[in-house]
Amino acid sequence: MKQWETLAAVEREPDKVSGVWVFRGTRVPVSALFENLRDGATIAEFLEWFPGVDRAQVEAVLNDELRTLTVTA
Q1: 39-71 b/e with 16+ CB inside 10 Å = b?
Q2: Would you say residue 4 lies in a domain?
Q3: pLDDT (tens digit per residue) in 21-65
Q4: CA 73 from chain center: how many Å?
């Protein structure tokens, strides 16, 4: 399971959206970003559909994932 404790763009609280990771200050699950991108949405479309999320938050999550994928053992 992905852990984002040090990523300021997201938060997780047990009583907020069943404790899933959400974009900080919103109730938008981080998983919604990946689901929409998988289904062909652009970042601009995602931001339009979820106005509480800002581009810097999306970029922080994507950059963190990219770092995770490029780390070598």
Answers
A1: eebeeeebbeebeebbeebbebbeebeeeeeee
A2: no
A3: 999 999 999 999 999 999 999 999 999 999 999 999 999 999 999
A4: 25
Q: How many domains does the chain have?
A: 1
In the 8-state DSSP scheme, what is residue 63? H
Whether 13 and 19 have beta carbons less than 8 Å apart is answered as yes
In a domain, 16, yes or no: yes
Looking from the CA of 59 toward its CB, the CA atoms found within 13 Å total: 4
Q: If DSSP codes are grouped into helix, strand and coil, which group holds residue 34? A: helix
Question: In CATH, what number is assigned to the domain containing residue 43?
Answer: 1.10.10.10
Q: Considering just the CA atoms, what is the radius of gyration of the chain in Å?
A: 12
Give me the half-sphere count of Cα atoms (radius 13 Å) on the Cβ side of residue 19: 2
Model confidence, pTM: 0.88
